[in-house]
Structure formats: C-alpha cells, structure tokens
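Weekly structure sync, notes
Attendees: PL (lead), two postdocs, one rotation student
Agenda item 3: pending single-chain targets
PL asked that the sequence for the first pending target be pasted directly into the notes so everyone works from the same version. It is reproduced below exactly as submitted, 829 residues in total.
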Amino acid sequence: MGCSLLPFLLPLLIQISVVAAFTNAGDYAALLALKDVWENEPPNWVGSDPCSDSWEGITCTDSRVTSISLASVNLEGELTADIASLSELQILDLSNNKGLYGPLPQKIGNLKQLTNLQLISCSFSGPIPDTIGSLPMLVTLSLNSNSFTGRIPPSIGNLSTLFWLDLADNQLEGPLPVSDGTNPGLDKLLHTKHFHLGQNKFSGPIPDQLFSSNMVLIHLLLDGNQLTGNVPESLGHVQSLEVVRLDRNSLNGTVPSNLNNLASVRELYLSNNEFTGPLPNLTSLDALLTLDLSNNSFDVSTFPSWIPQSQALVTVRMEGLKLEGPVPVMLFALPNLQTVTLKRNKLNGTLDVGNSFSNQLELIDLEDNSITDYNGPTGGNFDVILVNNPICGETGISESYCKFPTSDAPYSTPPVNCIPIPCSDIRLPAPHANVHSPSQGFYSSKGSSKSPGIGIIIGAAVGGSLLLLLVIPFAKWNSTKSSVGVPQLKGARNFSFEELKKYTKNFSDSNDIGSGGYGKVYRGILQTGELIAIKRAQQGSLQGGLEFKTEIELLSRVHHRNVVSLLGFCFDRGEQMLIYEFVPNGSLKDTLSGKTGIVLDWGRRLKIALGAARGLAYLHELANPPIIHRDIKSTNILLDERLNAKVADFGLSKLLGDVEKGHVTTQVKGTMGYLDPEYYMTQQLTEKSDVYSFGVLLLELLTARNPIERGKYIVREVKMAMDKTKNLYNLTEILDPAIVSGSTLKGLDKFVDLAMTCVEESGAARPPMSEVVKEIENIMQLAGMNPNAESASSSATYEDANKENPDHPYGKESFQYSGTFPPSKIEPH
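Predicted structure, written out during the meeting:
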C-alpha cells in the first residue's frame, strides 16, 4: 500500500524539497502573514517560493529573505509582529505608503541583522518602541513624516553603528534624551553623522551634555520645535558640523561665541528665536554659504562688518533685526552672492550696489526700510525690491525696484509670531524649496502639520468635477488692470473670491504656507476634503499679468501625469490667484538637498529622470502647439506621493507656433547654470534649449550639487573629471555619496553619456526629448527596473495617464514639514 502511494506523494515531496532549497519555510510563512494583513501588495506575490519566483520588493541571500523594499506601492495595513520572524532581514523600506498605519511592534527589536529601517512618510503612530535600541547592526533609522508620539527612546543611544537618525516631522515631545549613568542617550551616538529631529514638539533646553568633540555629526536639525534656554557652548566643540538648524524655537540668551570654531559649517539657521546680546561674529566660518539670523532681538545697530568678508556666502537673511545705517557696498562684491534679504529693518541712506557686484546676484530685498536713493543697475539680471522705502514715494513709484518682481517670489523669513515659517525661498507657482540626505518646492506637506516648505505642494489631483469648462472664459478679466489679452482656456474652474476665502478660513495665518515678492501661497481645503494650493498675488502688484495669463493658458490645456495640473483661477475683486493640485513630496531640489527626508537611491533617481523626461517630451511633441518650458531645473520638478515627477512652473514658457522656423526669437530668460549657451548667444529659443537644461538636471541628479557652486559649473566639472576607462567614469568624487555607497549604479555610464549629449554646445547635436525618454527606459532595464511601472507606457498613453483619480494621500487637515533646511542656492527667475 505504501508503494502504491508513492506516485502521489512524490510530487508533494519534490515541491517541499524545492521550497526548502530556496525560500526558508519560516520566512515564507512570515511573508504570507504580512500578505494577509496588507492590501495592495504586489500582484506577483503568488506561488510558494518568493526567492526563486522573484516576488516584487523581496531580495534573498541563499534561502533567506534579506530585504523588503516596497516604497511607494500604495500598501495598506499594519506592520505586525510577524516581521520579527524574518531573522536575517537586513533592509526594511516601506516608505511613502500612506495606508500603512498603527504602532510599530515591540518585536521589531528581534531583527538583529537589520541595517536599514526606513518607514518614511507613512501613517504610523504611537510611541517608538524602545526595542529599536537593540538592533546592533542598524546604520539608517528613518521614521520621519509619520505621526509618532511620546519621547525619543533613550535606548537609541545604544546604536553604536548608526549613521543616519531621522525622526523629523512627527509629534514627538519631551526633552532630548542624554545618558544619566543608568540609561543611554543621544550623546552616545558618537559615529552618527545625521541628527534630523526637526518639526516635532521637543521642549526644554538643549542639553549641554548632548555634544562633544568626539562626535562626527555633520547635520544637526532641531528646527520647528519648542526648545527653550541657551544654545549650549558644547555645540562649538563639534568641529565636523556642516549644517546647523536651530530656527523656529524659543531659544534665548546670547549665541555662544565659540560657534566661530565650526569652520566646516555651510548652513546656519538661527532665525525666529528670542536671542539677545551681540550678533555672533562668524569670521572664521570660511565655508559658510547660507546665514539666516532673522527675527531675533540681538543688540545690534549697524550692519555687521564681518559679513562682507565672508567670501563663500551665497545667501544672507537678516530680516526684522532693527539694523540701521547704510548697507556696505562690499557685501555685493562677494563672488558667490545670490540672495540678500534685509526686510523690516531701519537701513537708510543710499543703496549702493557698486560696479563689482557678483555675477551670481539674483535678489536684493530691502522692503520696509528707510532707503532714500539707489545706485545700481535696473532691469538687469537681478531683482531689487525697495517697496515701502522713502525712495518709492510718489516721484519714484514708476521705478522697477518700487514694485514687486513678476518672477518667482524670493525667500522670506516671516516674523516670529507668524506660522508657519518658510524654510527657504518660495517659488511661485512651482517649487523651490533637509541637505543631501539618504532619505528628501511647491510647499511641501507631510500629512499632519503646517508646512513651511518651499515649492508648493501640488499633489493628488482633485476630482474631475473641479475641471469645469468655462462657457465664457475669463468673463471677469479686467482689461484695465492688465494690458494682456483675455486668456484662452481649455479647462479650469473659475473660483470666486468668496469661495477661496472660505477654503482658506479667510486667508488665515494658519493656512499661509509661504510668501515672497509675488505674494503668498495658501493651503486650502475644499468641501470634499481635498487639499489645494492657492497662489495669491500681492495686492497692488500689476506686473504679473503676462505670467498670470501664460500660466493659466498653458496649464489649463495640458493634461499629463508628469505635468502639474492647474485646477482653476480667481480674477475677482482685483485679485489674481492660481489654484493648483497638491503635490505631497515637494520639489526634486528639496529631495536632493535632504529637506523631505526621502531616500533617493539610484533606482528612484532613474524613475524621477524618466518622469521628468516624459513630461517634457509631452510638452515638446504632443502639446498643440508645442510648448517650450524655458526654465527646467530641480526646483521645477515636483514629486508626488509615489515619487512620480511632475514638471511645474510655466511662467516663462513659450508656444512654438511657427514650425517652419523651429524657434522663437525672444529675450533671454531662465536660471543661471541651466541656461542653454546657444540660446543665450542667439536669443533663438528652441526645444533643444530645454534639452540642455534637462542635461544639467541629470547631472544634478547624479551629484546632488547646484549647477553652479562656489564658482564651479557642474557641466565643466564633469567634463574635466570624466575618464571612460575607469570605474564609474572616474566620477566617484563628484557623485552624490548617497548613491555611491548604497547602489550598484548599473547603467551609470550610459546615464552620464546621455547627460553630456544633452549639454552639447550645439543644439543640433542634442537629442530630442523622445529619444531621451527611450534612452532612460533602456538604462532602467539595464538596472533591472520596469520603466513602465506606475507611469505612462508610451506616447499613446500620455493623454490618458492623467484621467485616473487616485485617493488623496492626506487624511488630516494640517501640514507637516519634513524638518531639515533649504538648499543654499536661491533661484528666482
């Protein structure tokens, strides 16, 4: 009888043997248990052998599951204790799945091989389990942009191998834990380089014990908390620091003079506190790029003499400090200077820019001062704002510096009591604004608290019912206010002033998510619960008519998943307002600089490059007539909840109606570093001008560097360093360390080749965007990725790709800012 059963048992025995030979039975059972509690798990999670069947997101070593990477796949459910059975798991990345909720299981501490725990931008809540402190191999801990509550577990201080700690953008509270002889604390993390703890509710003083000279910390981000007391002098002992953000707290007292010892600091934000005493003298900070001291109570009168001697400075922000006297002409000769914001002071006399001002200069904002005269160019490559100064009395009102510029709004640091405080320059209507991070402007929103971000968050599309065709387009267009003609609209909703007033709670400060020269941007909530971003022009500003009309016309007629959607406009009661979809993850610039805490590995960068390329190809080749964007750059590429790229900001765009000539002769506009040299020389704008800018964008994706940084141009730097005979083309020193250390970089050589072809001097030698799209698709396939996952598969699907109406990723009313700091380069048009 036993022999007669053998034919039936043999297949079963073989199947059991195969499973055992590949996927460990315990690991398989754990994955099945997770599958049972999750919704929207990958469709190929079928069969009995996840390892050999290559379940999506699952990586195995021999028969053991060593990695689960399921970021941005719309998972829903809880992370149960079943995860603890995967005892060989090294990487757990479930980032950007808003449907993941509930507390983390205490048993997560059983994953003794875990090196990377990344749960960024989900909906996890409750306290952080203290068992996380028992993961001896942990290198990256990124729990930012969730709803965690309670205190930081002191046990985190046991993580001796930790490199990256990011708890920003949560609801954590209490003091910052330090060791007490019985319990460990953050002061024990001597090998950690990143403390990203901003945008929480931490209170009490910053412990003096927290810092020591033994630390290798490079990023200290404590912004947007409720910290009080003095800045500890021990901070000045951490000589490795490159970024310090203490802004938007209630810190007081005198800033320690030994901060002058931090010679490697590049970004220093002390704004919006209660500091008194003298301004810190930071003469020795030779690497300082960005300085923001705004909105404090320093004992200061004249402009600090040491600032014009800081040769590396790119951005100076000193708003609301009661500064008096003239602005030193030497300041504007700093070679890398781009932005000077000195609003709400008592500066007087003549604003003298001199004859040797920086060729990088983009903005000088002295709104609300006592300037009586101006000596410098007007209508040049940089904006000067002297609104509400004596010089702009009745006789000077016609001067350009007496009006707000029509370009993107510059950064502004609002007064202390204004909420929220932006963290960088504000690009309207598209993005601009934590530092390069292994984790990431329209204004960035993170699910549940105000966002001071930069670059508007224009994200999940509001339902099609909002996109109403206007029977009489722009019936209220006021020809007396604007000399431009009535916009020709294909689809957009005409919002009334009263509607927008209701959606923003009377444009309340709590819904003000950014401000600048053009005006302000507000968060709005429709009756359906959907979030929108509203760009509201400054009252009395008559200069934005052309850009206003251009953006409405262009955005109302383009519909593609990789192009930001205009939902409507308001031209009522003398107002100019644009209403956009809301993009949850800010701009690519935000991400590369680390602001949003999102990890951009090699695969994600390829996906972003492809999405941006597809959006641009649509504008060039499928829009009718074709559209030349004219300002492609990382601040104008927005990232949605799945990190799909969206091209934004059409204020400078041009229609290419004359197909015979193939170009538009027009005044040169754009952003330094991305500008096509051929267009600059000939004033002939073509699609190939966008291709050049896109090539620079690809190099930015590779390096996480500004196109022009400290006088060095990234295109030239890559050309000089390239050696195709060497590993990684000899670009290791230039590439972003976040991808060099964490990826195999398959296809990097072809990616570099593509970027360099796009930035050829001659436009004729550059490929069209359709070829760029195909090449990036090929590179993704080389890297083992599906280029059509979650994106339009071909040009034929471009028009249909935006017809989907996914659920909005936010279920809460308020924003949360991701908790680091803005990029150093401020890029208004």
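Discussion points:
- Residues 1-21, 407-484, 791-829 have pLDDT under 50 and may be disordered.
- The longest strand covers residues 346-352.
Action: rotation student to compare against the earlier draft before next sync.
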